Amino acid sequence: MSTALKHTPLHSAHLQAGAKMVDFGGWDMPVSYGSQIEEHHTVRRAAGMFDVSHMLNVDVRAKETTASALTEAQSAATGEKGVRAFLSRLLANDVAKLTVPGKALYSCMLKPDGGVIDDLIVYFFDEANWRLVVNAGTADKDIAWMQQVAHDEGFEVQIEPRRDLAMIAVQGPQAREKLWAARPHWKAPTEQLAAFNGVYIDADTLVARTGYTGEDGFEVVLPATRVGAFWNDLVSQGVLPCGLGARDTLRLEAGMNLYGQEMNEQVNPLISGLSWTVSFKNPDRHFIGRDALEAITPEQTLVGIKLLERGVMRAHMKLRSAQGEGELTSGSMSPTMGVSIGMARVPLGLQPGDAVEVEMRGKWMPAEVVKMPFVRNGKISA
């Protein structure tokens, strides 16, 4: 028997809006509401929004964080088995970089052999209270892995999946103004918010200046019981609902990895364009996967590819170059650029401007290596 697809709290709103729905990692999600191209351009030129409630917010706290035990919890959180130590062990990037409340960090969570369990964002609020935002398709295994590491290594932490929360990404050059029009009292606490920082509006509403499109904007986490009204208020301010199709072309133009394509449990971050998310700086920080990564001499790297003739590149297409063969990990038509672009894992040594060929329907088509991102803040850079 097939397993029933999961629904976000906005599922009925998507159906009422006429969205085309698809199975995305076990979730029934909107791929578009009519024109994927229009949705893409709206995010680049104005403001669009995405239901990303299928992603999972996970609170990681020190044990015994009641108000009466806060001092003790803060003390425990900074100890050898506290929250910071746990995340320092769990993540390839170094949470020692997080000292300002609300600051976020992008990282991978690795297997002992260096394969990527998931890529995620971690937020620091205080020593006893942190939050991870993980991908939908990996959420269950992520939680199981976190709990296993905490149990096996004796960390004094509690891991709480927040399935009571929903999340909306409001993205585009007009995103902030549109959000403030819908929620005027949010402007004061968020106007000076720097990129990759978040702030709590109330006990259960987090607004972060983050996103997955290469445009400015916010990701808003709030109780599922309030997300429908928030979505409708954004619509009334002219924010266009956008689906997974536009989200994918936007992230590709922005040169952002997608779990399951650019990296997975069999692919390490050093050959996925994610070496910048792995911190070896502290020799005493023995994060999971470190020994494996330090033993690897990468022979491949991830680069941007632009097709020079008509056609559309797709994932898994073969590539050849003077340095050897490679493979497309992602590929699509770029609505902003009007040509096909992609990411490819290729031999080391290829540089922007180098000629390559991509196999498409039995023919080798000319392409070139380009520097990523292809597009950022509405401007073509590739």
**Based on helices, strands and strand pairing, what is the structural class?**
alpha+beta
Sequence stretches where pLDDT stays below 50 over 5 or more residues: 65-70
Number of E-state strands: 21
- Computed Rg: 21 Å
- How far the N terminus sits from the C terminus, by CA atoms, comes to 47 Å
Strand content: 25-35%
Number of discrete helical segments? 10
Give the biggest sheet: 6 strands, mixed
The neighbouring-strand order within the major sheet is 10-11-12-9-3-13
Shape summary: globular
Residue-averaged pLDDT: 95
Portion of residues within helices: 10-25%
How does this structure look, described?
- With 382 residues, the chain is α+β, with helices and mostly antiparallel strands.
- 23% of the residues lie in helices and 32% in strands.
- The protein is built from ten helices and 21 strands.
- The chain has helices spanning 11-16, 36-45, 70-77, 83-90, 139-152, 175-182, 187-190, 224-236, 244-253, 290-294; strands at 20-24, 27-32, 48-51, 56-62, 104-110, 116-126, 129-134, 157-161, 165-171, 198-202, 205-208, 217-223, 240-241, 300-307, 318-321, 324-333, 340-347, 355-360, 363-370, 375-376, 379-380.
- It has a six-stranded mixed sheet with strand order 10-11-12-9-3-13.
- A hairpin with a 2-residue loop joins β6 (116-126) and β7.
- α2 crosses α9 (244-253) and α6 (175-182) packs across α8 (224-236).
- The chain is globular.
- Mean pLDDT is 95; it is low at 65-70.
